[in-house]
Amino acid sequence: MADTDTRLLMLIDDEPAQSRLITALAARDGWRTIVVADAETAIATLGTRQGMALGAIILDQWVPGDGACDLIQQLRQRRPGLPILMLTASASPLLAVEAMRAGATDYLIKPVAPDRLLTALRNSTTREAPRDELQPLTEKITGPADFDAMIGAAPAFRTALAIAAKSARGHGPMLIEGPSGTGKEMLVRAVHAASLRAKMPLRIINANSTPANSIESMLFGHEKGAFPGAFDRQIGALQHCDGATLVIDEVCRLPLGVQQRLSEFLATGAVRPIGARHSFRVDVRLIVCANLNLKELVGYGEFDETLFDQISQTTVALPPLRERPGDIPALARYFLARIGEQPGLRELGITEGALALLSAYDWPGNVRQLQAVLFRAAVFCDGDALTADDFPQLSSMISSDPLSGGNQHESAGVMLFTADGNLRPLEEIEADVIRLAIGHYRGRMTEVARRLGIGRSTLYRKLSDLGISEAG
């Protein structure tokens, strides 16, 4: 891995505009970029003084074309420890699999968002387990857009789903809070699928990846000549979504002025494009997502209080994965089933040792990170099941045996020991087993009872005695 003092990047790219953009973005994190336009120059550069100081390589697949994987192999053979990120316009899972098997560290889909590029560079040059690795690709590996596809039995998670499901058929705004990677977009799609507007379009706008000087126009539209550069009239997303659902992701990134305009829209139902004399009434279901605590931001004066009051009437809080370790086995098996359906891959099992290792990690990138790490492991697995050996980065970061000690005592995702090494009370373990079963069999109580070897009446009695709701 790159030393902290080594911040030299080689970009293999023959597009001047893109090269300038990536060079400027990388400079934000202290990278100095060498740009080479072809494979031959790239190979030759590795042998120079600058080449020996490289900390990472970004390769645009367009340069070598069909030979991209061959070039990656050549680069990897000459510099085995050097991170190689491939930039491509293709979202093909098969190409990703081939590139990773050739030695690519990460796979970036154009147009790449600035934060995504910088995160990929940081992940590839640190010992930390990948967080958003393969994010654009793995997000395409999804199951049905419904609540049954939301895997988990942890009480806080089931409570969040219950609130979302109850509110899905309403028309008022909804706030979904949770750290990045907890599944907010997947929940949005489940809410939309269960709503009265399910047959209408769902549009998602990410406020963080949209320039601050254009987000207002994107939402509300503008008239021709409304400001310098407004050469044509533009209809905003709110008008486009009349009768449908609009999602604003990372709503906390909206400028305060735009937040106030959005608050006015929620109060009146009217949209007035920039430069327009008249407003237009529209019927839009607004769902907003935030990875920060908006109530705290209101207290700091960084989020509009009136808007917060309007959108927080229905609030769904998704917990981080570290707070639901018992869900990791079910999530892992679910993701492996989806991954196995991708071209070039096959469905794999996973051993208890591997599950214990996954459950011992705190997953700062949450469910999204778990999916990406499983994808990488599946690409390189030669056996029929993933073992702990297929996760070397996790193993290197977890110094103690994942099958012994502290909160790492788990069987099939159920914690057996307390933090001080003592066994947990049997009643607590039984409650966790039942929650795990409810999540694993997606709330099908007859199947839960059958698999636990008890009758339905006994199961419902235990739910009552243990204080567990049918939602998990």
From TrEMBL:
UniProt key word Nucleotide-binding: yes
Classification via CDD domains: AAA (cd00009)
Domain Response regulatory positions: 8-125
Chief localisation class: cytoplasm
Sigma-54 factor interaction domain: residues covered: 150-379
Function: Member of the two-component regulatory system NtrB/NtrC, which controls expression of the nitrogen-regulated (ntr) genes in response to nitrogen limitation. Phosphorylated NtrC binds directly to DNA and stimulates the formation of open promoter-sigma54-RNA polymerase complexes.
UniProt name for this protein: DNA-binding transcriptional regulator NtrC
Organism of origin: Novosphingobium ovatum
